[in-house]
Amino acid sequence: MKNIRLAGIVLMTILLTITAACGQQQTTSLKVAEVTRSIFYAPQYVALEKGFFEEEGLEIELNTTWGGDKTMTALLSDGSDIALVGSETSIYVHARGANDPAINFAQLTQTDGTFLVAREKVEDFEWEDLNDSTFLGQRKGGMPQMVGEFVLKQHDINPQEDLELIQNVDFANIPNAFASGTGDYVQLFEPTASIFEKEGVGHIVASFGEESGHVPYTVFMTKESFINQNEEAIHKFTRAIYKAQQWVQEHSAMETAKVIQPYFEDSELDLIATVVDRYKSQGSFATDPVLDEEEWNNLKAIMEEAGELPEDVDHGTLVNTNIAEEVINE
């Protein structure tokens, strides 16, 4: 009798172990390379902090690779599985004849993220005020520079003739150059623009994002082969991002700021909230992950205007909307 009872306990233990194992979701690890660390990417950090990736059975290893070239190198060399970077990089890679192209599958931001900052406080700013000024712009060939020049041309300003355009300063050194006295105007990302305004170094007078319209400014992309071999994981990743996009849309800037503050420990909470509110109010955060054809064509128009479009690439060649659309329709 004792042996029968013992056997029953052992059997029950085995059954409970099997049941628990079956109930556990298998975890998939994904390496993500972000082009920079920015409040502009708030929904990504919300997805991490709110556990949306974990709910999908994903373990995310996030690395900041500081620059489009380094980010794409990490992706193409298998140093990362997914890259968060501007869509223009996928066009550059495709034009070089990549056998395994980078495919855009989930959009995170849908406007330019830079602001025009003036050294002096300008009452009733007009874009024509930039004529005959010194403008400290962004690196040539990057989206900030291309959007910046596109907006200037929209306001009948020739960047090469109507002002002194400075483009030989490295991205990381642009804020210091302006703070040290270079330029009457500068094109800056947040939170630097708001920090400069708070410290009296400069004054935000216009938004390049508002002026340029919707573009696939920052997008999650991966190699075509990776999607083919890991479609379920990409689907889960996109679902987590969509949850975060909806969460940011439905919650206040301060609520979002509190969630993402661990990623910006050197920034005050109020400043983070100010930046989130500025981006949210101008529609910079995409509310769903679909990169549509109109946005893609707007990107190409900006690149072509800047003389940086190596070839005309159709939307369907480098963009996969199927996964994002399936996630939204679930």
UniProtKB/TrEMBL annotation:
<feature type="signal peptide">
    <location>
        <begin position="1"/>
        <end position="23"/>
    </location>
</feature>
<protein>
    <submittedName>
        <fullName>NitT/TauT family transport system substrate-binding protein</fullName>
    </submittedName>
</protein>
<keyword id="KW-0732">Signal</keyword>
<dbReference type="GO" id="GO:0042597">
    <property type="term" value="C:periplasmic space"/>
</dbReference>
<comment type="similarity">
    <text>Belongs to the bacterial solute-binding protein SsuA/TauA family.</text>
</comment>
<dbReference type="Pfam" id="PF13379">
    <property type="entry name" value="NMT1_2"/>
</dbReference>
